[in-house]
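Following the same procedure, backbone shapes were mapped to integers, yielding the entry below.
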Amino acid sequence: MIPVAFDYVRAGSADEALAALAEHGDEAKLLAGGHSLLPMMKLRLAYPSVVVDIGRVADLSYITDKGDHIAVGALTRHRDIEISDLIKQHAPLLAEATSHVGDPQVRHRGTLGGSLAHADAAADHPSVFLAVDASVVVHGPNGERVVTGADLFDGFLESTVEPTEMITEIRVPKHTGEGWSFQKFNRRAQDWAIVGVSAQRVNGAARVALVNMAATPIRATATEQALADGASASEAAELAAQGTEPSADLNASAEYRAHLARVLTRRALTEAGIG
């Protein structure tokens, strides 16, 4: 389909983008890589009257060592994250999951900030974001605020980033040498995950997040609690689907997704050396 008519604004800086958002409010949408917004516009699931292109805002593309965490600019391309030695050393779960995103064309255009702002529970990065206990820096009319994973995702394809705000940076804690695993099951290469699991050991505890097991990205809290109480990886994995609300569609029933969550969680915990 063809999108409804819209005005186009190319922002040369983050300040210009924020000014455009402040002017147009919820009638405007940010365009970064375009892999989420443009298909939604073509299907008329989104119909902004103004599209603010931030794809060439170079000062929001970087990967920097900040001591206890790695700062990743919101417009950093997936490919840059995938091949970054700094990410591979201190946040290998993020590097591995990024290598499974789409295909090379998608990874050369898509951005980490755009993926998180889209808040799709079927995407890979939100689960990593929750598993590694990352946070985002959000800028808006009232200045800067830092949002943690527990507070970022608000509903189906909804985040707590306001229409006049934008994500400018992702802060990824260093987990150097800690056990981790990313598991993803899909029908074909490049497909969205039917179910996926991100597992990360953090200071001796386990953080486990699920892909495509609810309307929002979620953690497998029952599994995490079982591990904290001394359960084995196999025992804890049996609780992975507890409290989730997987959907049923042409690819899988809700029961099948729950089964996959248990299987993939067991594999992830075993590979990460957790439990």
Remarks:
- The chain has a mean pLDDT of 95.
- The longest strand covers residues 166-173.
- The radius of gyration is 18 Å.
- The chain has three domains: 7-53, 60-173, 180-272.
